[in-house]
Amino acid sequence: MTEKILPEKNLVVRHSKLELVEHWAIALSGLALLLTGIFELPVAKRYYIINIPGLGWSADFITSLYLHYAAALVFTAAALFHVAYHGLRGETGMLPQKGDFAASVTVIKSLFGFGEEPPMHKYLPEQRLAYAGMALTILMLMVSGLVKTYKNLYAPDMSHTVLLWATWIHNIGFILFFLAFLAHMAAIALKPNWPMVRGIFTGKVRLDYARHRHGLWLAEIESKEKTTDAESGPTPPEQPTGAEGDQVPTEQPAPRGGEGEETPPEP
Amino acid sequence: MKTKEKFEIGRRSFLKISAGAALISGVGLPKKVHAAKEGQLATLIDLSLCDGCPDRKVPACVAACKEINRDKIPPVADPIPEPWPRKTIEDWSKKREVFNRLTPYNFIYVHKAEVNIAGQKKTVFVPRRCMHCDNPACATICPFSANHKNKNGAVVIDQDLCFGGAKCRDVCPWQIPQRQSGVGIYLKVLPGLMGNGVMYKCDLCNERLKQNRLPACVEACPREAMLIGPRKAVEQAAEARARRMNGYLYGKTQNGGTSTIYVSPVPFEAINKAIGPKPGQPHMKVNVKRRMADTDPLAKTVLAAPVLGLAAAGVAGFLNRRNNRKSDSGKEE
Predict the structure, then answer these.
(1) Is the domain of B56 the same as that of B188?
(2) Among the four residues A69, A165, A216, A253, which has the most C-beta atoms within 10 Å?
(3) For the CA atoms of B139, B142, B144, B147, what is the dihedral angle to 10 degrees?
(4) How many percent of chain B have pLDDT more than 90?
(5) How many CB atoms sit inside 10 A of residue A224's CB?
């Protein structure tokens, strides 16, 4: 199990290394696709982008296409990997649930000081909705992009109707993806979400933050850990033993204090 | 004998094949997905026959093209919106009569080239227009798919969809398409910030082809220096003529192959030298590489990317299950 409470470090493992690789592969290739996609429009000369040091190549459409393909390779493979891998494992925590829309409104209002946040799972309701929106946008971009790639290679004379559909789905997908990227950055900019940023770099978030904001998730992990411990032996959870028999420090008292206060890492 | 060959390729064969081409290019429904190549046409331009129409002010092919496309470009906005921040405006609306170069109002011109062959001067007349490439970058990477290659080989810009960004001209090895600012759909969107008119070029008279009619330039040529017909037949005829005159071909391999094949009694290196390219008067370099070919291997990998992703997920899932089983059996022990 990836998710794990590390009370001695005041941390919870939120993402596995593989999930981090997936996220960053999609994020970085997606950014490269946005940039090189913009350079596939005749904007670099007109807007003097070619004069920016290091972007002299931006008006060369063939170079941009080459980079666009390279990024599309990573993006498409990573997106398909993500869906297939987590689908096979039955990990559906990011899929929207009933009532997510109403819950999202409550959460967003609370971010601006109106009302209280409801107890939440690993992912916030608006994160699940955003995920579905992003997945649909990525699907649009991928399918239409593959049609366009096929056309570039094998069928420059393909049906103009099909091609126009693919082109406009790709162009609209590009706008939606750009807006989704901006929304993603805006969500990160909101202070209550800051502790989650650490999670997408290190895989771990602060335990006190998780307990405060993702109570349902922690309860789920704790319940799973209890079940696992009960199955694997009599060792009490208060004195965990490492898998290889290494001594693990006993649990320290849960830290107290406001957000931002963090237990220093173990030496 | 020569006349007979021209007649067969130029007129009768064209009409026979063009019915099929018209069917494939949209008048009728295609029967098979891969039947396209069968209907592909090509034109042959024989420089040993073209004399530039010395008895006319404007060569017949140019005049015919101008005539049928006279009203193609709608009235130009006055004033033409100034693009921002680079303020390039290309306006040919007051120079419509220009016929010695490519312009938005002139899709074909005849270049008089004074060629120097081993110290001997020779004049050749070279009709120039879009080559209608086999895999035209101008069409395949048009961001709005306004430029499209038809099954019959004609590469056609839809002036109702084109924003006039001139990307097609940038990627065309011969910089054929020409821009007219102040017309087109961009005027209705954000004329100051995106788009700058419409790109124009020869469309091989695609509408006439659909009606089983010859392109205007082919029909008008008094010396039958231009022919159109099935791609293979035209290639064979071009090769036969080149052999007979101990001449040279152009367009068969350039930019990965085109639907326009020139036959010339003088080498194209010499013609290119004589042309000395200028805006609207494209070069005739012999070595014209299809630049997009460099991206083809990567594009093929992109098409395989979904399979790669799924295969990787399968492998990762398998390894994951195996590790879980190992750790479970470890616990049991």
Answers:
(1) yes
(2) A69
(3) -30
(4) 82
(5) 13
Query: Based on the structure, what is the number of domains in chain B?
Result: 2
> Cis omega (within 30 of 0) on the bond before A267?
no
pLDDT 10s digits, B267-283? 999 999 999 889 999 99
pLDDT at B205 over 50: yes
> A120 and A242 share a domain?
no
DSSP, res A40:
T
By Cβ distance, the residue of B88, B150, B302 closest to A69 is B302
* A132 in the same domain as A38: yes
Q: What confidence tier does B13 reach under pLDDT thresholds 50, 70, 90?
A: very low
Q: Mark whether B235 and B320 lie in a shared domain.
A: no
Q: How far is A158 from chain B (nearest CA, A)?
A: 8
Does B299 touch chain A if contact means CB atoms closer than 8 Å? yes
Q: Provide the residue range defining the domain that includes B126.
A: 2-289
Q: Is residue B49 part of a domain?
A: yes
> Which residues on A lie below 8 Å from B140 (Cβ)?
151-152, 156
Q: What angle do CA A142, B139, B83 make, to 5 degrees?
A: 95
CB contact under 8 A, B317 and A89: yes
Kindly state whether residues A172 and A160 are assigned to the same domain: yes
Q: What is the ipTM of this complex?
A: 0.88
Contact A156 B134 (CB under 8 A): yes
The pLDDT value given to residue B331: 64
Of B149, B167, B295, the CB nearest to A69: B295
Regarding whether B280 and B312 lie in a shared domain, the answer is: no
Of A162, A184, A234, A229, residue with least CA distance to A30 = A184
- In terms of domains, do A22 and A10 share one? no
Per-residue pLDDT of B111-131, as tens digits, reads 999 999 888 999 999 999 999
Residues A8 and A20 in one domain: no
Q: Is residue B333 part of a domain?
A: no
A101-115 pLDDT per residue, tens: 999 999 888 888 888
Alpha-carbon span B157 to A266, nearest angstrom: 67
- Furthest-apart CA atoms within chain A: distance in Å: 71
Query: Is residue B150 less than 8 Å (CB to CB) from chain A?
Result: yes
Residue A146 token pair:
């593959």
| Minimum Cα–Cα distance from B89: chain A residue | A46
Note which residues in 189-228 of chain B have CB less than 8 A from chain A.
196
Residues A173 and A232 in one domain: no
Pick from A45, A79, A160: CB nearest B309: A79
A219 and A111 assigned to the same domain: no
pLDDT of A253 reads 36
The answer to whether the CB atoms of A62 and B149 lie below 8 A apart is no
Give the separation between CA B20 and CA B23, rounded to whole angstroms: 5
Across B17-21, B157-161, B259-263, least confident range:
B17-21
∠ CA B29-B31-B34 to the nearest 5 degrees?
115
CB contact under 8 A, B86 and A45: yes
Domain final position from A209, A225, A248: A209
For residue A258, the enclosing domain spans 1-15+210-267
Distance CA A99, CA A89 (A): 25
Q: For B300, which residue in chain A has the nearest alpha carbon?
A: A153
